[in-house]
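Input sequence (244 aa), recorded before submission:
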Amino acid sequence: MISSLRGHFRSIALDYPGFGLSVAGPGYSYLPADHAAVTGAFVERLGLSEVTLVVQDWGGPIGLHVAEQRPEVFRGLVIGNTFGWPVNGDMHFEVFSHMMGDAVGRELIERFNLFVNLMIPAGHRRRKLSNAEMAHYRSALGTPARREASAIFPRAITRSRAFLAQVETNLHTLDRLPALTVWGDADFAFRAKERIRWEGLLHDRSTVVIHGAGHFVQSDAPDDFAEAISTWHAMPGAKGPTHE
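Predicted structure, token format:
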């Protein structure tokens, strides 16, 4: 996706500590609030401005928290399959958080690299990842210690309620920003229900539904995702009609 957009934008992607090729400092907790603090410091250290924030999955509440704290830095939002509010009480999320966040789930993630070996392929519905892509994911999380960070996120779905409530409370600070929702409709995690909620929250917004795309929509349909951003960005005021 970045390759497709690099002729039009300066694209910056960061690894959260303990993910990708990064290493977390001693005592880092891997909680969403900590990732948000690191992301905010990242934006400040690079002196970024006029940022179009692109978020997906946990990147939604993490990135949006940063934008809420420093809205003057941001000029637009691109919302992939994600959330920005507590989901406690919703059995769809409660069951996943309990199953994957308890001791057994954590063991499966850390010992058997469950997120890479199961969730990554399951989150791609329009295309099958190549052997080289899967090897890259596996090498990035190549040891149980490297998988600790990914084992924290499932239980945080319900245990980070206070952080998610803060994100939801402050979403109004982003009302002035034009927003684009790019949504894969074959996602196992986030449903049409969440997309419709985003559409009600984001006033100056457009929506593109990518049919058949899974949870990792930006990887499953990178050309469609990039085209949606380019088309939306070219519109006056970076906004346009809802379409599918």
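Checked by second reader. The first strand starts at residue 51 and ends at 57.
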